[in-house]
């Protein structure tokens, strides 16, 4: 799942199977926003292969750790999106105008 | 004095970006012609405009028309001491969701403070990866209608089923169909010989909570024939299903028509699947987002010009306001309705109006097919993205 230089932990290419733009583009965004990352990008080598390559080059930290932390950040972001959304829906459902609309 | 990187200078207050760069960072500009990608010529000047303030005005005037891309790199503005990185805590502070409209099948909401890459990930997952139940196998006992078996089966597959997919398992290749992964429907319709033609509607599909009633043909006649499914109990007795019987979401969908004397007898087996395998499993008719339009009047538009402007807009974004002395001026009253058709910026008066989109404000619409309520489709999509991350993290460790 991981390849690249074995001697240089700063620069790595990670190959994720059964993933596509959905995950790769999201994590690429978070990696780009991480000050430790010097360069990152992703590519899908062939459209009929379910595989993405994510390239991470850092300013010093291990690329693997930085990528892992980005995924952890993505989970935190998702959890926050979900809780905020659920709260908004609950609030909206309790407003009088919504209850009138649904004949409750 | 030792050298320190701009980002590490703790005691220097974090500087704001100059106004034109802040606009460029947070807005997409729409001019009379379609936004084009940044050209090489302008690319060359981007390096200097961060440092040389006096040249910046000239460079950004060109850039405004050209840049649609975001500056994502955390050190993108390091030259002027602006930190473009994103911390989860900052995201938590700024992120907002506003529900605009909510009914059984449709939800419209604004998602503010998120990047397009994540908004698009949610959209992609809702369309292709949130599972639902759909008819996958049709056992046809008799079909004398004019519609071929395969077309009939295809039409059956597209019918939305009202069954919560979260209560079911995926049926893998080696699994036997059982009450946890298969829903069975039966249809038996006959059109009377001397009667009118008969429209077969989706309400003719009857749920069989006990599983298939058809027997498999066995090569050895002495063994007891097996059924196509092996249910250990009735689905109706399962605690999670018992309250809400399974059926078709819409009872008035016409499947086919039968002429006098024609009949159809079949059994349909629904299984769990995702939209990336076949669109019949997609929980949404469609789901889309658009960035919030922002319409600004840069100069006051009065009198005749104002009336012309109001007339020009097909979406009635502008309105007239009295300013006294029988004068009227144009105001932007409904920017949200703007479709960015650019009628108002074509021709004369172009320089008076700025058409922009807010980069981090998304107006989402989710249209559910009915298997799941629209708001649940979204929360399920977010959960799926979390699961994807967890999978990768466990493989990285």
Automatic annotation (TrEMBL), chain A:
In the record, biological process GO terms are: transcription by RNA polymerase III; transcription elongation by RNA polymerase I
Q: What are the UniProt keywords, alphabetically?
A: DNA-directed RNA polymerase, Nucleus, Transcription
Classify the main location. nucleus
What do the Gene Ontology cellular component annotations say?
RNA polymerase I complex; RNA polymerase III complex
Q: Which domain of life is it from?
A: Eukaryota
- Extract the GO molecular function terms from the UniProt entry: DNA binding; DNA-directed RNA polymerase activity; protein dimerization activity
Q: Which residues form the DNA-directed RNA polymerase RBP11-like dimerisation domain?
A: 12-83
> Where is it located?
Nucleus
- List the PROSITE patterns: RNA_POL_L_13KD
- One family from Pfam that matches here is RNA_pol_L_2
Among HAMAP family, the record links this protein to: RNApol_arch_Rpo11
Q: Which family does it belong to?
A: Belongs to the archaeal Rpo11/eukaryotic RPB11/RPC19 RNA polymerase subunit family.
Question: Can you name this protein?
Answer: DNA-directed RNA polymerases I and III subunit RPAC2
TrEMBL record, chain B:
Which is one Pfam family of this protein?
RNA_pol_L
Its predominant location is nucleus
Mind listing the GO molecular function terms for this protein? DNA binding; DNA-directed RNA polymerase activity; protein dimerization activity
Q: Which residues form the DNA-directed RNA polymerase RpoA/D/Rpb3-type domain?
A: 106-395
| Claim: Nucleus is one of the keywords in the record | yes
Biological process (GO) annotations held by this record are: DNA-templated transcription
The UniProt keywords, alphabetically, are: DNA-directed RNA polymerase, Nucleus, Transcription
What InterPro entries does UniProt report for this protein, alphabetically?
Answer: DNA-dir_RNA_pol_30-40kDasu_CS, DNA-dir_RNA_pol_insert, DNA-dir_RNA_pol_RpoA/D/Rpb3, RBP11-like, RNAP_Rpo3/Rpb3/RPAC1, RNAPI/III_AC40, RNApol_insert_sf, Rpo3/RPB3_RNA_Pol_subunit
Subcellular compartments: Nucleus
Cellular component (GO) terms are: RNA polymerase I complex; RNA polymerase III complex
Q: Which family does it belong to?
A: Belongs to the archaeal Rpo3/eukaryotic RPB3 RNA polymerase subunit family.
**Listed name of the protein:** DNA-directed RNA polymerases I and III subunit RPAC1
The species this protein was found in? Dendrobium chrysotoxum
Q: Taxonomically, what lineage is the organism? A: Eukaryota, Viridiplantae, Streptophyta, Embryophyta, Tracheophyta
